[in-house]
Amino acid sequence: MKSIAVIGGGAAGYFGAIAATENNPNATVTLFESTNDPLNKVRISGGGRCNVTHACFEPSELIEKYPRGSNELRGSFTRFQPKDTIEWFESRGVKLKTESDGRMFPITDRSETIIECLQQSAEHAGVNTRLRTKITTIQNVSDENDHTHFELETLSGETVRFDFVLLTTGSSPYGTKLAESLGHTIIPPVPSLFTFKIKDPRVQDLAGVSFPDSTARLEIDKHKPFTQSGPILITHWGLSGPAVLKLSAWAARELHDASYQAALFVNWCDSETEASALTKISVFKEKFSKRTISANSPVDIPKRFWARLIELQGIDAEMTWANITKKQMSVIAQELTASKLAVSGRGIFKEEFVTCGGVALKEVDFRTMQSRIYPGLFFAGEILDIDGVTGGFNFQSAWTTSWLAGQALRGLCMAADA
Hints:
The strands form six sheets. The protein has a six-stranded antiparallel barrel. The chain starts with a strand and ends with a helix. It is of the alpha+beta class. It has 13 helices and 21 strands. Helix content is 34%, strand content 25%. It has three domains: 255 residues, 3-Layer(bba) Sandwich (FAD/NAD(P)-binding domain); 78 residues, Elongation Factor Tu (Ef-tu), domain 3; 66 residues, Orthogonal Bundle (Helicase, Ruva Protein, domain 3).
């Protein structure tokens, strides 16, 4: 009987342990988690609702959501994608719902629903779960018959042997150290998916003001600009929202290297160009010359933000459109479509923490998720140098890679037992 160790009790760990057990009924599968709180990231994700996956069912479109790992995941998503994730959970009694932006959650709106499903499925499959058991070292050794296996040592000094190991420790440094000890290259992890710290009078004291259709362009030193579109939200510390979070993901390494100092150009009303905005302003002036400027905007934009822009141009609150100058109109058009803001640091995205970096992808066979350096060693989830934008994509890569590892282990176990 073959034995499989799964190290890491997160989403990928549980999903991988279940897949490994169900595909290898004659093997023993042991899941090691260093804390007493497994699946913690599942618990806090999506504001406590768990954004399980995204309603994106074309692999060619799905891979576009991954700043790192898209090429490697192309084939993987033809084998296990969001449609399969939905079926997997529904076959275990958990129905998912799709929200207007494509994010998918359990219909209960409770992350505990997903946690209970994973833990019950693991127990039903026969996974041996060991909490508060930290693996400190992994060694690949051979016995007297020249058969290789892995020796794992725990923090308490216990040594346990396994035929195969699946590493699913997420962004934890201890997991990448284990991989590195076996000869794998580790791409230094840096934060991804974060908000921007911005101190600027245009957004100061306007927390809560949002722009549903915006475009943001990030310029960092001499790098090619990064551009993303989508909603933007003003916060107490700067800017957030899908457009900002996507920018932070795609430019994660460049921002880290620049100490999170960059120039951000925002078009607050994406449907307008500077020229079209100036035209609307001119037409509005002619049509509503007796109205006050600060209380009457010619474009669809939050009233508080419009009033702030007008105030910063030195325009009196009682001044009417009849008295605005051409220069003032030109400056306002530019501010509406290309406000330049200085990014001075990074904030956080709720309680979630995603990183880019991890095990170098060229050292992993994505048909099986097996190490190209050590046969019998597998990887899944965020320990790999893969990260997606917000919206359930990081969980999907975890489900996919751990499922593939479980499938591959079936063939290896059968071959070993033959």
